[in-house]
Sequence to fold (369 residues):
Amino acid sequence: MRVILILLTLVSFATGSQTPAPARGDEWRQFRGNPSLTGIAATTLPQTPKLLWKYETGDHIESSAAIANGVVYVGVGNGDLIAVDLATGKLRWKYSAQTFIGESSPAVGPDAVYIGDLDGILHAVNIRDGKRLWTYKTDAEIKSSPILVNDLVIIGSYDTHLYAIEARTGKLRWKHATEGMVHATPAVQGDVVLVAGCDEKLRAIRIADGTLAYEIVAGAYTGSSPVVDGNRVYFGTFSDEVLGLDLRAKKILWRYENRDRQFPFYSSAAFLNGRVIIGGRDKFVHALDAATGKAAWTFATRARVDSSPVIAGGVIYVGSNDGHLYALDFNSGQKRWEFDAGAALSASPAIAAGRIVIGSQDGVLYCFG
Fold:
Protein backbone atom coordinates (compact mmCIF):
# COMPACT_ATOMS: atom_id res chain seq x y z
CA MET A 1 0.00 0.00 0.00
CA ARG A 2 2.84 2.40 0.86
CA VAL A 3 4.44 1.82 -2.57
CA ILE A 4 1.14 2.58 -4.30
CA LEU A 5 0.75 5.82 -2.37
CA ILE A 6 4.29 6.89 -3.26
CA LEU A 7 3.68 6.14 -6.94
CA LEU A 8 0.44 8.10 -6.93
CA THR A 9 2.22 11.05 -5.36
CA LEU A 10 4.95 10.93 -8.00
CA VAL A 11 2.40 10.78 -10.81
CA SER A 12 0.57 13.77 -9.36
CA PHE A 13 3.83 15.74 -9.16
CA ALA A 14 4.80 14.83 -12.71
CA THR A 15 1.51 15.94 -14.21
CA GLY A 16 1.43 19.14 -12.19
CA SER A 17 -1.99 18.29 -10.78
CA GLN A 18 -2.49 19.06 -7.12
CA THR A 19 -5.56 19.41 -4.94
CA PRO A 20 -5.72 23.15 -4.26
CA ALA A 21 -6.18 24.25 -0.68
CA PRO A 22 -9.53 25.93 -0.06
CA ALA A 23 -9.95 29.02 2.02
CA ARG A 24 -10.54 28.31 5.71
CA GLY A 25 -14.18 27.55 6.35
CA ASP A 26 -14.75 30.64 8.48
CA GLU A 27 -12.98 33.17 6.24
CA TRP A 28 -12.60 34.48 2.69
CA ARG A 29 -9.75 36.94 3.00
CA GLN A 30 -9.15 37.90 -0.63
CA PHE A 31 -10.52 37.81 -4.18
CA ARG A 32 -11.09 34.14 -5.13
CA GLY A 33 -10.52 33.03 -1.53
CA ASN A 34 -6.88 31.90 -1.59
CA PRO A 35 -3.51 32.74 -3.17
CA SER A 36 -4.01 30.20 -6.00
CA LEU A 37 -7.29 31.99 -6.88
CA THR A 38 -9.12 28.64 -7.03
CA GLY A 39 -12.47 29.95 -5.82
CA ILE A 40 -13.02 27.05 -3.39
CA ALA A 41 -14.84 27.55 -0.08
CA ALA A 42 -14.53 25.04 2.77
CA THR A 43 -17.89 25.53 4.44
CA THR A 44 -21.32 23.92 4.50
CA LEU A 45 -24.31 25.75 3.02
CA PRO A 46 -28.03 24.95 3.11
CA GLN A 47 -29.48 23.24 0.02
CA THR A 48 -31.89 26.18 -0.26
CA PRO A 49 -30.15 29.28 1.08
CA LYS A 50 -32.33 31.94 2.69
CA LEU A 51 -31.79 35.69 2.61
CA LEU A 52 -30.49 36.55 6.08
CA TRP A 53 -29.95 40.27 5.64
CA LYS A 54 -29.20 42.99 3.13
CA TYR A 55 -27.37 46.28 3.51
CA GLU A 56 -28.01 49.35 1.33
CA THR A 57 -24.66 50.92 0.47
CA GLY A 58 -25.92 53.88 -1.58
CA ASP A 59 -24.00 53.12 -4.79
CA HIS A 60 -23.17 50.27 -7.15
CA ILE A 61 -20.96 47.39 -6.06
CA GLU A 62 -18.47 45.85 -8.48
CA SER A 63 -15.99 44.86 -5.76
CA SER A 64 -16.22 41.31 -4.41
CA ALA A 65 -16.44 40.95 -0.65
CA ALA A 66 -13.88 39.57 1.79
CA ILE A 67 -14.81 37.89 5.08
CA ALA A 68 -12.63 37.55 8.18
CA ASN A 69 -13.30 37.22 11.90
CA GLY A 70 -17.04 37.65 11.48
CA VAL A 71 -16.77 40.85 9.41
CA VAL A 72 -17.60 41.48 5.74
CA TYR A 73 -15.47 44.03 3.86
CA VAL A 74 -16.43 45.37 0.44
CA GLY A 75 -15.72 48.38 -1.76
CA VAL A 76 -18.55 50.60 -3.00
CA GLY A 77 -18.61 52.64 -6.20
CA ASN A 78 -18.82 55.96 -4.32
CA GLY A 79 -15.43 55.27 -2.72
CA ASP A 80 -16.52 53.76 0.58
CA LEU A 81 -14.85 50.70 2.02
CA ILE A 82 -17.38 49.30 4.47
CA ALA A 83 -17.10 46.77 7.29
CA VAL A 84 -20.38 44.98 8.06
CA ASP A 85 -21.09 42.43 10.76
CA LEU A 86 -21.52 39.01 9.12
CA ALA A 87 -24.09 37.81 11.65
CA THR A 88 -26.38 40.85 11.69
CA GLY A 89 -25.64 42.96 8.60
CA LYS A 90 -25.04 46.03 10.77
CA LEU A 91 -22.38 48.56 9.80
CA ARG A 92 -19.27 48.50 11.96
CA TRP A 93 -17.38 51.27 10.21
CA LYS A 94 -17.03 53.10 6.92
CA TYR A 95 -13.84 54.40 5.34
CA SER A 96 -13.85 56.92 2.48
CA ALA A 97 -11.22 56.62 -0.24
CA GLN A 98 -12.42 60.06 -1.41
CA THR A 99 -12.68 58.80 -4.96
CA PHE A 100 -14.37 55.92 -6.81
CA ILE A 101 -13.77 52.21 -6.19
CA GLY A 102 -14.29 49.82 -9.09
CA GLU A 103 -13.64 46.10 -9.25
CA SER A 104 -10.73 46.05 -6.82
CA SER A 105 -11.69 43.70 -4.00
CA PRO A 106 -10.34 43.92 -0.46
CA ALA A 107 -7.65 41.68 0.99
CA VAL A 108 -7.63 41.27 4.76
CA GLY A 109 -4.46 40.89 6.84
CA PRO A 110 -4.02 40.52 10.60
CA ASP A 111 -4.34 44.24 11.29
CA ALA A 112 -5.35 45.93 8.05
CA VAL A 113 -7.59 45.62 5.02
CA TYR A 114 -6.23 46.72 1.63
CA ILE A 115 -8.05 47.95 -1.50
CA GLY A 116 -7.29 49.95 -4.66
CA ASP A 117 -9.28 52.83 -6.16
CA LEU A 118 -9.83 54.37 -9.58
CA ASP A 119 -7.41 57.21 -8.87
CA GLY A 120 -4.67 54.60 -8.61
CA ILE A 121 -4.28 54.66 -4.83
CA LEU A 122 -3.76 51.59 -2.68
CA HIS A 123 -5.29 52.06 0.77
CA ALA A 124 -4.36 50.30 4.02
CA VAL A 125 -7.14 50.62 6.59
CA ASN A 126 -7.17 49.56 10.24
CA ILE A 127 -9.57 46.61 10.61
CA ARG A 128 -10.55 47.65 14.13
CA ASP A 129 -11.77 51.19 13.56
CA GLY A 130 -11.63 51.92 9.81
CA LYS A 131 -8.90 54.55 10.18
CA ARG A 132 -6.35 55.10 7.45
CA LEU A 133 -2.95 53.54 8.09
CA TRP A 134 -1.22 54.52 4.85
CA THR A 135 -1.76 55.03 1.12
CA TYR A 136 0.45 54.40 -1.89
CA LYS A 137 -0.12 56.23 -5.20
CA THR A 138 0.38 54.58 -8.59
CA ASP A 139 0.10 56.49 -11.86
CA ALA A 140 -3.24 55.14 -13.14
CA GLU A 141 -6.45 53.50 -11.98
CA ILE A 142 -6.44 50.26 -10.01
CA LYS A 143 -8.98 47.56 -10.84
CA SER A 144 -6.75 44.67 -9.80
CA SER A 145 -7.34 43.20 -6.35
CA PRO A 146 -4.50 43.15 -3.81
CA ILE A 147 -3.03 39.90 -2.52
CA LEU A 148 -0.94 39.40 0.61
CA VAL A 149 2.29 37.43 0.22
CA ASN A 150 4.68 37.24 3.18
CA ASP A 151 5.05 40.87 4.30
CA LEU A 152 3.97 42.35 0.96
CA VAL A 153 0.82 43.66 -0.68
CA ILE A 154 1.02 42.88 -4.40
CA ILE A 155 -1.31 44.66 -6.82
CA GLY A 156 -1.51 45.70 -10.47
CA SER A 157 -2.18 49.14 -11.91
CA TYR A 158 -3.30 50.48 -15.27
CA ASP A 159 0.02 52.33 -15.37
CA THR A 160 1.42 48.98 -16.72
CA HIS A 161 3.17 47.99 -13.47
CA LEU A 162 2.77 45.29 -10.86
CA TYR A 163 3.66 46.63 -7.40
CA ALA A 164 4.92 45.03 -4.20
CA ILE A 165 4.31 47.32 -1.21
CA GLU A 166 5.38 46.62 2.35
CA ALA A 167 2.16 45.72 4.18
CA ARG A 168 3.16 47.40 7.43
CA THR A 169 4.77 50.61 6.18
CA GLY A 170 3.34 51.28 2.71
CA LYS A 171 6.85 51.59 1.26
CA LEU A 172 7.64 50.33 -2.23
CA ARG A 173 9.65 47.10 -2.23
CA TRP A 174 9.66 46.69 -6.02
CA LYS A 175 7.62 47.30 -9.15
CA HIS A 176 7.67 45.31 -12.35
CA ALA A 177 7.01 46.97 -15.72
CA THR A 178 4.82 45.11 -18.22
CA GLU A 179 3.86 46.15 -21.74
CA GLY A 180 0.20 46.82 -21.00
CA MET A 181 -2.33 47.67 -18.32
CA VAL A 182 -2.39 45.25 -15.38
CA HIS A 183 -6.05 44.56 -14.76
CA ALA A 184 -6.05 41.00 -13.42
CA THR A 185 -5.28 39.89 -9.89
CA PRO A 186 -1.99 37.95 -9.53
CA ALA A 187 -1.97 34.33 -8.35
CA VAL A 188 0.77 32.77 -6.24
CA GLN A 189 2.73 29.70 -7.33
CA GLY A 190 5.67 28.93 -5.08
CA ASP A 191 8.15 31.80 -5.18
CA VAL A 192 6.51 33.64 -8.09
CA VAL A 193 3.29 35.47 -8.79
CA LEU A 194 1.51 34.83 -12.07
CA VAL A 195 -0.38 37.61 -13.80
CA ALA A 196 -2.13 37.62 -17.15
CA GLY A 197 -2.17 41.02 -18.76
CA CYS A 198 -3.23 43.38 -21.45
CA ASP A 199 0.16 42.83 -23.13
CA GLU A 200 -1.12 39.36 -24.15
CA LYS A 201 1.38 37.54 -21.93
CA LEU A 202 1.30 35.46 -18.78
CA ARG A 203 4.19 36.63 -16.62
CA ALA A 204 5.86 34.81 -13.72
CA ILE A 205 7.44 37.43 -11.46
CA ARG A 206 9.71 36.59 -8.54
CA ILE A 207 8.19 37.61 -5.21
CA ALA A 208 11.60 38.26 -3.66
CA ASP A 209 12.75 41.00 -6.03
CA GLY A 210 10.16 41.61 -8.78
CA THR A 211 12.31 40.24 -11.59
CA LEU A 212 10.84 38.24 -14.45
CA ALA A 213 11.26 34.48 -14.05
CA TYR A 214 9.62 33.66 -17.40
CA GLU A 215 6.72 34.57 -19.64
CA ILE A 216 4.34 32.71 -21.94
CA VAL A 217 2.74 34.41 -24.92
CA ALA A 218 -1.03 34.04 -24.64
CA GLY A 219 -1.74 35.97 -27.83
CA ALA A 220 -4.79 37.71 -26.40
CA TYR A 221 -5.74 40.69 -24.25
CA THR A 222 -6.74 39.40 -20.81
CA GLY A 223 -8.88 40.74 -17.96
CA SER A 224 -9.44 37.36 -16.33
CA SER A 225 -7.24 36.42 -13.37
CA PRO A 226 -5.35 33.11 -13.62
CA VAL A 227 -6.27 30.09 -11.51
CA VAL A 228 -3.37 27.82 -10.56
CA ASP A 229 -3.38 24.03 -10.29
CA GLY A 230 0.16 22.88 -9.59
CA ASN A 231 2.12 23.52 -12.78
CA ARG A 232 -0.92 24.41 -14.85
CA VAL A 233 -2.89 27.62 -15.09
CA TYR A 234 -6.20 28.61 -16.69
CA PHE A 235 -7.76 31.95 -17.66
CA GLY A 236 -10.13 33.56 -20.14
CA THR A 237 -9.32 36.13 -22.84
CA PHE A 238 -10.91 38.89 -24.88
CA SER A 239 -10.26 36.75 -27.96
CA ASP A 240 -13.30 34.69 -26.90
CA GLU A 241 -11.24 31.80 -25.54
CA VAL A 242 -10.27 30.04 -22.33
CA LEU A 243 -6.65 28.90 -22.22
CA GLY A 244 -4.98 26.03 -20.42
CA LEU A 245 -1.20 26.49 -20.01
CA ASP A 246 1.62 24.21 -18.90
CA LEU A 247 4.01 26.25 -16.77
CA ARG A 248 6.87 23.74 -16.96
CA ALA A 249 6.79 23.43 -20.73
CA LYS A 250 5.87 27.12 -20.97
CA LYS A 251 3.28 26.51 -23.63
CA ILE A 252 -0.45 26.59 -24.28
CA LEU A 253 -1.98 23.13 -23.89
CA TRP A 254 -5.42 23.92 -25.25
CA ARG A 255 -7.81 26.65 -26.29
CA TYR A 256 -11.56 26.51 -25.72
CA GLU A 257 -14.25 28.60 -27.36
CA ASN A 258 -18.02 28.45 -27.63
CA ARG A 259 -18.40 27.68 -31.31
CA ASP A 260 -21.97 28.96 -31.41
CA ARG A 261 -21.38 32.28 -29.61
CA GLN A 262 -18.05 34.13 -29.79
CA PHE A 263 -17.82 36.49 -26.81
CA PRO A 264 -15.01 37.39 -24.37
CA PHE A 265 -14.36 35.65 -21.07
CA TYR A 266 -13.98 38.31 -18.36
CA SER A 267 -14.85 36.11 -15.38
CA SER A 268 -12.03 34.44 -13.45
CA ALA A 269 -12.22 30.66 -13.35
CA ALA A 270 -12.67 28.34 -10.38
CA PHE A 271 -10.86 25.00 -10.30
CA LEU A 272 -11.67 21.71 -8.57
CA ASN A 273 -11.19 18.00 -9.31
CA GLY A 274 -9.82 18.44 -12.83
CA ARG A 275 -12.55 20.84 -13.90
CA VAL A 276 -12.38 24.54 -14.80
CA ILE A 277 -15.56 26.57 -14.16
CA ILE A 278 -15.84 30.01 -15.77
CA GLY A 279 -18.47 32.54 -16.78
CA GLY A 280 -18.64 34.05 -20.26
CA ARG A 281 -20.05 37.13 -21.91
CA ASP A 282 -21.86 34.64 -24.14
CA LYS A 283 -24.35 34.42 -21.19
CA PHE A 284 -23.18 30.91 -20.24
CA VAL A 285 -21.37 29.28 -17.35
CA HIS A 286 -18.89 26.77 -18.79
CA ALA A 287 -17.45 23.64 -17.14
CA LEU A 288 -14.30 22.45 -18.93
CA ASP A 289 -12.15 19.35 -18.61
CA ALA A 290 -8.80 20.68 -17.39
CA ALA A 291 -6.83 18.02 -19.28
CA THR A 292 -8.39 18.55 -22.70
CA GLY A 293 -10.23 21.88 -22.63
CA LYS A 294 -13.43 20.20 -23.82
CA ALA A 295 -16.78 21.26 -22.40
CA ALA A 296 -18.28 18.99 -19.75
CA TRP A 297 -21.45 21.10 -19.63
CA THR A 298 -22.75 24.64 -20.06
CA PHE A 299 -25.50 26.51 -18.24
CA ALA A 300 -27.38 29.36 -19.92
CA THR A 301 -28.26 32.56 -18.06
CA ARG A 302 -30.07 35.54 -19.58
CA ALA A 303 -27.14 37.98 -19.64
CA ARG A 304 -23.36 38.00 -19.59
CA VAL A 305 -21.56 36.33 -16.70
CA ASP A 306 -18.69 38.54 -15.50
CA SER A 307 -19.05 37.24 -11.94
CA SER A 308 -16.41 34.68 -10.98
CA PRO A 309 -17.83 31.36 -9.71
CA VAL A 310 -17.18 29.92 -6.26
CA ILE A 311 -17.44 26.23 -5.37
CA ALA A 312 -18.67 24.97 -1.99
CA GLY A 313 -19.83 21.47 -1.13
CA GLY A 314 -20.22 20.27 -4.71
CA VAL A 315 -22.23 23.35 -5.71
CA ILE A 316 -21.18 26.30 -7.88
CA TYR A 317 -22.40 29.77 -6.91
CA VAL A 318 -22.19 32.53 -9.51
CA GLY A 319 -23.91 35.80 -10.34
CA SER A 320 -25.11 37.00 -13.72
CA ASN A 321 -25.93 40.39 -15.17
CA ASP A 322 -29.47 39.07 -15.51
CA GLY A 323 -29.75 39.86 -11.78
CA HIS A 324 -29.77 36.27 -10.56
CA LEU A 325 -27.46 34.44 -8.18
CA TYR A 326 -27.34 30.81 -9.30
CA ALA A 327 -26.43 27.59 -7.52
CA LEU A 328 -25.43 24.85 -9.99
CA ASP A 329 -24.55 21.21 -9.48
CA PHE A 330 -20.79 20.80 -9.95
CA ASN A 331 -21.07 17.51 -11.87
CA SER A 332 -24.06 18.17 -14.11
CA GLY A 333 -24.54 21.93 -14.27
CA GLN A 334 -28.19 21.53 -13.27
CA LYS A 335 -29.69 24.49 -11.43
CA ARG A 336 -30.31 23.79 -7.75
CA TRP A 337 -31.37 27.24 -6.58
CA GLU A 338 -31.53 30.87 -7.68
CA PHE A 339 -32.21 34.28 -6.20
CA ASP A 340 -33.47 37.30 -8.13
CA ALA A 341 -31.66 40.40 -6.90
CA GLY A 342 -33.37 42.62 -9.48
CA ALA A 343 -30.06 44.18 -10.59
CA ALA A 344 -26.91 42.93 -12.29
CA LEU A 345 -24.52 40.82 -10.22
CA SER A 346 -21.09 41.36 -11.76
CA ALA A 347 -19.30 40.99 -8.42
CA SER A 348 -18.31 37.52 -7.28
CA PRO A 349 -19.66 35.63 -4.27
CA ALA A 350 -17.65 35.41 -1.05
CA ILE A 351 -18.45 32.26 0.92
CA ALA A 352 -17.45 31.57 4.53
CA ALA A 353 -18.93 30.43 7.85
CA GLY A 354 -22.02 29.02 6.17
CA ARG A 355 -22.81 32.33 4.47
CA ILE A 356 -22.83 33.66 0.90
CA VAL A 357 -22.19 37.40 0.46
CA ILE A 358 -22.48 39.29 -2.84
CA GLY A 359 -23.09 42.90 -3.87
CA SER A 360 -25.29 44.15 -6.70
CA GLN A 361 -25.09 46.94 -9.24
CA ASP A 362 -27.92 48.79 -7.46
CA GLY A 363 -25.87 48.98 -4.29
CA VAL A 364 -27.30 46.21 -2.13
CA LEU A 365 -25.04 43.84 -0.22
CA TYR A 366 -26.79 40.48 0.27
CA CYS A 367 -26.10 37.71 2.77
CA PHE A 368 -27.57 34.22 2.44
CA GLY A 369 -27.31 31.15 4.62
